[in-house]
Amino acid sequence: MLIWWRGPGAASDLTGVPHGVLRREQLEALCDHTTLLRQAQEQAQALLAHAHEQAEAVRARAQQDAEALWAQAQSRIEAACEEGRAEGERQAAVAWHERQAGHLVQQADAVRGLHEKLAEVVTSAVERIVHSGDRAALFQRAMRSVQSLSRSATALTLKVHPDDAQAARDGIDSVAALQTAGLSVEVVADPALPVGSCVFESDLGVVDASLDIQLTALRQAMSRAVRRAVAED
C-alpha cells in the first residue's frame, strides 16, 4: 500500500521522501516520530515553565533577603547614630560639669582669698590698736581673762618684762574685783620674758595671757571664721 504525502507547500518535501510517497511502515514510523516530537516539545515547555517558576522563586527570596538585610543595616545605622548622639550628649554634659566645677573652685579660691585678706587686715588693725593702746588696759583685760584662776587662789604672781612692770601694776590696781576679794597680786619683772609677756602663776597653775598669745588666738579665730564662711558659700 502506498500513501501520497504532501506538505503545506506545493513544492515542499517535509518528510524527506522523494515525491511525497510513503509506504505504510514509513507512515507508522513518521507518526511515532511526530508523537515523540510533540512529547519532547511538551516536556521542554514544562521544564521551561518549571525553570521560570524556580527562577521567580529564587528572585523573590533574593528580594526578601535583600530587603531584610537593608532593614537590618538601616536599624544598625540608626542605632549607631543614636548611640553616637547619646555619647556626644554625655561627653558634653561631663565637659559642662567639669567647667562648672572649675568655675566653682575658682570662685571658692577667690572668696577664700578675699576672706583671708580681710582676716589679715582685721588682725593687723587689731594688732596696731593693741600695740598703740594703753599698756595698763592690756594687763587689766588680761587679769579679767584669768578671773577663774584668781577666784580660788590665795596668792597670785604676774610676771612681765621690766619695761611693762609699771603698766602691769597700774592695770592690776584698776581691777576692783581683786580689791573686793582681798586677793593680792604681786607683779614680778622678769628680764628673760619678752615685752608684752603676761604670765600668771598661782598655787592652782600657770596661765600665759601674753599679748602674742592673745593675738595668735585672734588669728586662729579669724582663720576658723574664714573657713566657715567659705564652706557656707
Automatic annotation (TrEMBL):
Keyword Protein transport tagged: yes
Keywords: Cytoplasm, Protein transport, Transport
Pfam family, one: FliH
InterPro entries: Flagellar_FliH/T3SS_HrpE, T3SS_SctL/SctL2, T3SS_Stator/FliH
Subcellular location(s) of the protein: Cytoplasm
Main location: cytoplasm
Gene Ontology terms: biological process: protein secretion by the type III secretion system
GO CC terms of this entry: cytosol
Family label: Belongs to the SctL stator family.
Protein name, UniProt field: Type 3 secretion system stator protein
The organism of origin for this protein: Roseateles depolymerans
Lineage: Bacteria, Pseudomonadati, Pseudomonadota, Betaproteobacteria, Burkholderiales
